[in-house]
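Notes for week 9. Today we move from apo structures to complexes. The key idea is that a small molecule is not decoration. When we ask for a structure prediction with S-adenosylmethionine present, the ligand SMILES becomes part of the input, just like the chain. The input block below holds both the sequence and the ligand string. Read it once before you look at the output, and try to guess where the molecule might sit.
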Amino acid sequence: MTYMPTLTGEVITPRVDKRQVAESFSKAAGTYDSAATLQQIVAARVRLGLPDLDEGASILDMGCGTGFETRALVQRFPTADVAGLDISEGMLAYAQNQPDLKNCQWLSGDIEELPFHENRFDLVFSSLAVQWCDCFSEVLEQVKRVLKPGGRFVFSTLAAGSLHELQQAWLSVDSSPHVNQYESHTLQKQRVNASGLKVDTFCQQTETLYYPSVLHLLREMKALGANTVINSQGKGLSGRSVLKTLTKGYESYKTEKGFPASYQVVYGVLCKPDQISQSE
Ligand SMILES: C[S@@+](CC[C@H](N)C(=O)[O-])C[C@H]1O[C@@H](n2cnc3c(N)ncnc32)[C@H](O)[C@@H]1O
């Protein structure tokens, strides 16, 4: 078993197969934008927390994916120096090929090992990427390191209870993990409070999408590249009989709008204090 050295001193047993996560997102780079309904709704809400920035400010889009939200940052802050970082080479290649994003800097890297020196950015933006990391405390520590004093971390992630309908429905098939598990919002709050970052906003909101069938939901997750199940030991199930049983298990949640998929989305605006005390 390998243990990651962390800035927080916390011993983390890696639970996320990051190579698998990167591969899955790379495969989905060409289909991601057209399937990203939830991601675009969430990112629009994250943008409400953006601060005003001085001319020439430096911005990092962490887990930038296809660059869809990086574009929104470039449009909002046209004089800024914008960098996009992602662990998926396929996503980065897609973003890099966008003619209107050619002035951005693109980097392959891991949010939990940010390849930047300290005090580098005025703003770190991230939408729906942090939940793919091993340890939220480590993410916060990395962000605090690369933010300039007074800089802001404006982001979204997921909390426990996301896709609970799908998780319950899978129990009618078997007891293996088929849906990713996330930390509770309460635990996330404790991590934020311990991080030394000042809290402007840190709240949880349910976002629910509806699908005409369970197959539509599963296909969308695949088109997004969001179908990697952390800690699943590679067990995949498919086939008509599984889908039939899964759909039967999902029926009790169905409404006149269709099969619901609800996400517990966490929105945060955190600020690096101008003076960080020695103990932090
Ligand atoms: C759901 S997509 C979100 C993309 C974009 N932020 C958006 O809102 O459309 C998640 C992205 O995070 C990236 N990602 C996942 N784990 C990562 C990590 N540890 N470091 C950097 N990027 C990561 C994935 O490759 C993927 O592009």
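The chain has a mean pLDDT of 92.
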